[in-house]
Amino acid sequence: MDELVRGMSSNENRLTKLEKRDQEIINLHASVAHLQNELNIQAQQGLRNEIEIVGIPEGNNENLEHIVKVAAQKVGAQLKDVDVDWITRVGPRRLAVPPNVPDGGSRMSRPIVVRLLRRSKRDQLLKAFKSRKTLTSADLGIIGSPIKIFCNERLTKENRLLFREARARAKTHDYAFCWCNQGAIYIRKREGKAATLIRSKHDLDRHLPTKEDI
Predict the structure, then answer these.
(1) Contact 135, 77 (CB under 8 A)
(2) Spatial separation of the C-alpha atoms in residues 212 and 214, rounded to whole Å
(3) How confident is the model over 117-154, as pLDDT tens digits?
(4) Sequence-distant (≥ 6) Cβ neighbours of residue 124 within 8 angstroms
(5) What does the pLDDT average to over 8-33?
(6) So which domain of life are we looking at (predicted)?
(7) How many Cα atoms are found within 13 Å in the side-chain-facing hemisphere of 118?
(8) Cα dihedral sign for 99, 104, 109, 114?
(9) Burial bucket for residue 43 (CB in 10 Å: 0-12, 13-18, 19+)
């Protein structure tokens, strides 16, 4: 009988240790997730003066400063040398797409990133581009089939993927709005409703669950 009691006590001790270890693992995962989120927030803050222009065909010996200034002028904004820190294409060069492929020029062109010296100028440019949603490469005097040009806030890789997933799920759940403002992602069911901030995959799963999450 004593041996049975000792065995039960030993099993309880092992179970307690396992439960404690499981809780430590949960706490560790939570700490890692928190640190990753903090790093992402800091990285996003580092991009707060940058915009990303997508859709401008890439050419050899192109003058990005001139191209971006013309694009800004076309949307009613003024961009001077003193406003700009640097301008560059980002990402690996893409393989050329045959001319007969629809939107081939758009898919082979890397985004243009512009870092402004002042956030107010960045916000001014974003507002100007959003007010002229019909801007195309033809408006910039670029030869070839017109390609629609978009200008957005620059996001970290994590936020870019989260934003892409949020837009896809918002469409599935019949949300009318999904947008990004100052590096933060928001969704809204319809006009007049309160906006919901999406800060993480957890928020996304809670507000816009997939079939697997339901």
Answers:
(1) no
(2) 6
(3) 999 999 999 999 999 989 999 999 998 899 999 999 99
(4) 77
(5) 80
(6) Eukaryota
(7) 9
(8) positive
(9) middle
Q: What number is the average pLDDT over the span 152-160?
A: 96
Alpha-carbon distance of 34 to 167, in angstroms, equals: 24
Rounded to two decimals, the pTM is 0.78
Nearest CA to 53 among 79, 31, 33? 79
Query: Does the pLDDT value for residue 10 go beyond 80?
Result: no
- Predicted confidence (pLDDT) at residue 99 exceeds the cutoff of 50: no
List the one residue out of 58, 65, 42 whose CA is nearest residue 115: 65
Find the radius of gyration of the CA atoms of the chain. 25
Contact assessment for residue 75 and residue 135, using Cβ atoms and an 8 Å cutoff:
yes
Structure tokens at 21: 């270890």
| Residue reference for tokens 């010296």 | 117
